[in-house]
Fold this protein.
Amino acid sequence: MVQISKLMLMNKISNKIIRIYEKFFISIGSTSIFIAQSKRFITEVKPSNGECDVDAPRLLALSPFRFRGDLEALADSKKFQVFKVSDKWQKKMAALFYPKGFKLGFNYYDSNPDTQIKKIQDSTRKFFLKFLKDLYAKFDIDCVIGACVWYPQDYEWGYVSKMINTPYVVLHRENLITGDGHYEQRVLQLKRYGIFSGNHIIVHNERSKKAFVESGYVTSEKIDALGCVRMDEFIKSINAQVSIGASVNMQNSKKVTFFSFQRGVGLRGVTEVWPQNHEEGYTDLFAKTHVAFAQLALDNPDIEFVIKAKWGGGWLLEIEKVLLDAGIKYKELNNLIITGDGNAQDLIFNSDVIVCFGSTTLLEAGVANKFVVIPYFDEALDSKHSRFVHFKKEFSLFKVANNIQEFKDQILEGLENPYIDSKIMDARYKAFEEHVSFMDCSATEKYSKSLKKIIKTSS
C-alpha cells in the first residue's frame, strides 16, 4: 500500500514537471515536444482487409471514440486514409492554456467573449497556428473531421484548422430529432453556440439539417443531410440475407435483447440524462421494465436474455440497483447478460425479439425484420414528456406495451410468432430513411464525394 502511494506521488510529480516543460515550450513558440508526443497519440484506423491507396486523402478524426463505427466504415471504403487523435491528448493540450480553476461554458462560444476567454482563445490560437501546421505536415493531413459541433475539446482544433486551410468538417452524430420537443430544444441549444466556425457539417437527416439552419448556427450552403456511413454495411448484411431467402438471424437458440435506456432519454431541456432527483424522468418505467425483463429470464431458463447499455460504468450500476432492490439475484442467472460492451447490430442480428425505448436501434431492428416491443406506460404517458418520446409517429409499426403485463406477454409472443407483415416492413424502410440513412447503401459514397469536394475547394 505504501509503495502504491509512493508510485502515485512520483507520477504526480513527474506529470507536474512535464507540464512545466510543456508550458515553457509554448512560451517560446516551440512545437517540438508536442510533435514528438504525436507519435503516441495519433494512430491510423486500418481497413479490416487489404490496404488503402497511398494517394487517398488523409483524414484526422477528433474525439474518435464518439464516431461509433463511422471511422472504421470510412477506412473500409478505402476512399480515405483515416487517422485518429487521442481525445485525452486533445483535452490536455487545451488545458495548457486554461488558468487555474477555469471551467469551460457556453460563454466560450460567444461572438464577443469576456476578457479572460478572449485571452485564452488568443493564446491558444497563436500557438495552434504553428502547432497544427507542423502536425498536419508530419502526417500529411488533408482534412480534419469531428463527430459533434459542441465538443469543447474539438473547438480550437477545428477553428484553427480552417484558418490554415485544412478543412474542418463535422460529421454530426447527434441527429435523433423525432418529436416537436426535440426539435425546439435542438434549435435553442444551437443558438447558444453562436456561429459555426468550421467548413461544413454533414448530418443524417433533413430534420436535423433544418434545425441547424433555423437556429442560425450554419447557413444552408454549409450543411448536407447524407445519411449515416456506418449503416451501409448493416443494410448490405440485411439485403444479403433477404436475397437468399434467409431470416436475418444468425443463431438457432432463442434470444431477446433489451437496449437499455437512460432515465432522462430524449428529455433535453426537461431534465438530465440521469436525473439526480428520482421524481424526474422515466424512473418507474426504467425500474419496472428492467425488473420485468429479468423476471422473464428467471422464468425462461432456456432462453437467453441480454440487457445492453450504450456504455458501462454508472449505467450498469443503475440497472443492477433496480434489480437488487426488487430482490433479483441477477448474477445467479446463467441466461441473463447485462453489458455495456458488444456491437448493437450484431445483437440485433442474433436476437429474435428486441426491446427498445428512445433509441435508433428501434428502426435498425425494424428494418432487420425483427419483432420489436416498445414499453409505453408510467411516466412516458405524462403530458410534460409526451412531446419528447421518440418515434411516436412510428409506434404503429411495432408492438407497443401499455402496461407491465403486456410488456412481458408481447416479448413471449414475439418468441413464439415473430412474423412481420410486408406492408409493415415497407413502412419501416421509409421510417429508417427519414430518420437514419438510405436503404440503397449510398451514404458512404455521398460522404466521399462531399469530403473530396471540400478538400479540393480548400486546397
Q: What stands out?
A: Residues 2-27 form the longest helix (26 residues). The CA atoms of residues 207 and 384 lie 22 Å apart. The chain is about 45% helix and 10% strand. The two ends are 57 Å apart (CA to CA).
